[in-house]
Specification:
The structure holds two protein chains of two kinds. Chain A is 23% helix and 35% strand. By secondary structure, chain A is α+β, with helices and mostly antiparallel strands. Chain A folds into two domains: 223 residues, Rossmann fold; 127 residues, OB fold (Dihydrolipoamide Acetyltransferase, E2P). Chain B has two domains: 55 residues, no CATH class; 209 residues, MetI-like fold (Orthogonal Bundle). Chain B is built from ten helices and no strands.
């Protein structure tokens, strides 16, 4: 038996006729940090609660450490959960809050004390043990909630949007602390968030959910560079990817030829999966704002800037292409010469483009992953 | 500022409050004044607030006139306390179930509780009498405690349920994930957090029990040792005269226990009635 393994096998959940989880399968290895991300209503929290045992499973299997746990109560599943609202008991001290699961198990006082103090040590809560939750800051409360999960020594940690009640600065700090904690505990963690920055920064692998289905599973950089479909392409990345409607012209060994309105015909280096159908088809070209330039690039588009945000480190411009309503976003250097109300030309390279078919499925980009991945640090 | 009023609005608000207070407090004031008057000065025409010979004499003579007055006060207190304890034991788990669990017929049962409240005890007094007789409870404390508790439970469930619904569900889920059983969660998590709400329910029940015992005592009990104060007061009603000043004095003394409890627990009532109204 391997500890900390989690497997979802075609898991479904319906409320009456409404299927909110439509068959999710996923394999999680020991020690992985998995993030479920998606817009609100995509079913990410429901899925987490099904793993926790707080929601019934309509069909399929949840397997933890090689054991089907579908009907087991939460405590027998070997999981611990941290809630969005912390769910601390307001009438108990920090010490008793952390000790709660151990008290339930009727552990001896010495054992409780040892484990609580160890958890408090890890989470820097030792000086706070005698305080009530009401006297703590948001970050400290969240650490107490994590402490309560740690003392149970579960095989899988479940986090339900644990940082969304914190302010931006604290969230950044807690992100780092959680990543460190994951490293120190060497535990499997499943983490739900709607914040893609949390997903990108903390995850070993991200599961993007869309309407009760998995849209894509992959490492953060896989999702960024090779999104499988329009949904993932639009969801991952900030500001969000620009989409341009183009017409397919055909394909050859170099890629797919498309006609970009008001710009001409270009060959994009992607692998077609339906060569014979490309000609004449409406396709969607995606280009990230950070991959657009003012001077160089194969493809040039004329547009007029509406709003220019100067953030110091870079400039974010929102512009309208001639004759198109949709706003086009570009990220430039901090001193980029664009001005609200003034026309300018924006360029980008064919190799940076993503191309999606009429159903929103991607034509795989011809890029090598090892060129993109981070240098090996070990 | 939403709370900024013009002077005439403020005058209007206080005038309104004064009218209501007058309606509520005037009987108490009159009762107090009557208790101070000598018997032959009670009905004075035209009405005079201050009459000759006002004194606290009735407060002393009433104990001699009705020697069992302390017993009646004790009975009232005892019956109300028993009713409150029974109601709390029944209502806390029931209100939790109604607040948290989905089960068949939950909403119709809740609606039925309201309906029962509308009917009230007086309408059901004859069937209740038969029931008490068949159970052999007539002329016992139980005859006053059991129906008293039964009629107060529905309101208490409604009151406490709405309080418990404001306790975040995640607290229970967290405890459940940590392996706590339902009774353990109720005892260790819900009860301490719901304490202000429970105190409110206890006080409301106690006051309710204190007020409603007259009807049940009058119909189900003829043993004068067990009479609560409202019935005991009848002993001041003689063949020829009613000793009004002593009746009023005894009534006011009888209210005292409730008043004292109320003053001590007032801060809980205020906190309980407004808890959860604003984000904390």
């Amino acid at each position: 038996m391997t500890v900390g393994q989690l497997k979802l096998d075609n898991v479904k959940k319906s409320y009456g006729d409404v299927e909110v989880i439509q068959g999710v399968s996923l394999d999680v290895k020991h020690g992985e940090f998995i993030v479920f991300v998606g817009p609100s209503g995509c079913g990410k929290s429901t899925l987490l609660r099904m793993i926790a045992g707080l929601e019934e499973i309509t069909a399929g299997d949840v397997v933890i450490d090689d054991k089907i746990v579908n009907t087991l109560p939460p405590v027998k599943r070997g999981i611990a959960m941290v809630f969005q609202s912390y769910a601390l008991y307001p009438h108990m001290s920090v010490y008793e809050n952390i000790a709660f699961p151990l008290r339930v198990e009727k552990k001896s006082n010495e054992e409780v004390d040892e484990k609580v103090r160890k958890a408090a040590e890890i989470l820097h809560l030792t000086p706070r043990l005698n305080h009530r939750p009401g006297e703590l800051s948001g970050g400290q409360r969240q650490r107490v909630a994590i402490g309560r999960a740690i003392v149970r020594e579960p095989s899988v940690f479940l986090f339900d949007e644990p940082l969304s009640n914190l302010d931006a600065a604290l969230r950044a700090t807690m992100r780092v602390e959680l990543t460190k904690l994951h490293h120190d505990l060497d535990a499997t963690m499943i983490y739900v968030t709607h914040d893609q920055v949390e997903a990108m920064t903390m995850a070993d692998r991200i599961v993007v959910l869309d309407g009760g289905n998995i849209a894509q599973v992959g490492t953060p950089l896989e999702l960024y560079h090779k999104p499988d479909n329009l949904f993932v392409a639009g969801f991952i990345g900030n500001p969000k990817m620009n989409f341009i409607e183009v017409t397919g012209k055909g394909s050859d060994k170099d890629g797919v030829r498309v006609e970009v309105p008001n710009a001409g015909e270009f060959t994009l280096p992607v692998t077609p999966h339906d060569e014979d159908k490309i000609a004449g088809q409406k396709l969607t070209l995606g280009i990230r704002p950070e991959h657009t330039h003012l001077s160089e690039g194969d493809i040039a588009l004329n547009m007029t800037a509406n709003v220019v945000e100067r953030l110091g480190i870079h400039t974010v411009g929102y512009a309208n292409r001639d004759g198109v309503d949709e706003v086009f976003c570009t990220v430039q250097s901090g001193s980029a010469p664009i001005k609200a109300g003034a026309p300018f030309q924006l360029r980008f390279n064919a190799k940076d483009c993503h191309l999606f078919d009429a159903d929103g499925k991607v034509y795989e980009r011809k890029i090598e992953f090892k060129d993109l991945s981070l240098p090996d640090m070990n | 500022m939403i709370n900024k009023y013009r002077w005439w609005e403020i005058v209007g608000i206080y005038l309104g409050i004064a009218v209501f207070l007058l309606f509520i407090l005037a009987p108490f004031l009159e009762a107090f004044l009557v208790s101070l008057r000598p018997l032959n000065r009670i009905n004075s025409i035209p009405y005079k607030i201050i009459t000759d010979g006002m004194s606290f004499e009735a407060y002393f003579t009433m104990w001699k006139n009705v020697p069992r007055l302390p017993l009646y006060i004790w009975n009232s207190f005892f019956i109300a306390t028993c009713v409150t304890i029974i109601v709390l034991i029944a209502v806390v788990p029931a209100a939790w179930a109604f607040a948290r669990f989905e089960f068949k017929g939950r909403d119709s049962i809740l609606a039925a509780f309201l309906a029962i409240n509308m009917v009230g005890g007086a309408v059901l007094i004859i069937p209740l009498f038969q029931l008490m007789r068949d159970l052999g409870l007539l002329n016992t404390y139980m005859a006053m405690i059991v129906p008293g508790a039964a009629f107060l439970i529905p309101t208490a469930i409604w009151l406490l349920r709405s309080y418990l619904m404001k306790i975040p569900r995640e607290l229970e889920e967290a405890a459940w994930v940590d392996g706590a059983s339902r009774p353990y969660i109720l005892w260790k998590v819900i009860l301490p957090i719901a304490m202000p709400g429970i105190v409110v329910v206890a006080i409301a029940t106690f006051i309710g029990a204190y007020a409603q015992q007259f009807l049940f005592a009058l119909t189900f009990n003829s043993n004068s040792d067990l009479h609560p104060l409202p019935v005991g007061i009848y002993q001041f009603f003689g063949r020829q005269t009613v000793v009004w000043n002593e009746v009023m004095a005894a009534s006011l003394v009888g209210i005292l226990p409730v008043l004292i409890i109320y003053i001590f627990l007032q801060r809980y009532i205020i906190a309980g009635l407004t808890a959860g109204a604003v984000k904390e």
